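Researcher: Hi, I'm a grad student and pretty new to this. My advisor asked me to get structures for two proteins we've been looking at. I'm not sure of the right format, so I'll just paste the first sequence and hope you can take it from there.
Model: That works fine. Here's the first sequence with its structure tokens right after it:
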Amino acid sequence: LEDVSVYLIVDRDGKVMSTWPGAISSDYDPFVREAFRAARQALFNWSFEPVVKDGVPRFVRGNVTVFVSHSERRRATWIWIQNRKRQLRKARKNNDQQ
């Protein structure tokens, strides 16, 4: 299992205002970087119950960790290989036509 942490700030209405990378288990792994990007985008669609202290809604900083299984990694790798093969065939076909 790989994990991706995303830090976030939630505004007074419970909406995610900003995100940035937290700890990533494999910084140089393209699959994990893509998982981080997808998690970050998904968080902007989330909403939280506003945190209220002394009757006043507050901004909140937090962290969300997403776990990615190895079976998802294998499937993503297979999809990447198939897409790359298509790209190479298309490039070869274009070169043959020129």
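Researcher: Oh nice, that was easy. Here's the second one.
Model: And its structure:
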Amino acid sequence: EIINEGREAGERVRQDVADAGKKEAEEFVDRAKKEIDLETKKALDEIRREAVDLSLLAAGKILEKSMDEEDHRKLANQVVDELGTLKRPG
């Protein structure tokens, strides 16, 4: 009977440790997910700001002069090139 009680006590301790480890891992994953969401939102906000800046830049250039078709094509290519140089988040 003493041996059985010892086994049961050992099993309870093992289960308690396993439960605590599982809970800690779940909390870690939850914190990581929240941090990832926050960083994703920050990156999207930065992309939006860059897009607005580039749109304003393009609009300003359009207003600077009257543009023919070739000018429009050059401006469009320039904006695409500038979009390609945006800093990548992460």
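Researcher: Is there anything I should tell my advisor about the second?
Model: You could mention this: The CA atoms of residues 44 and 89 lie 9 Å apart.
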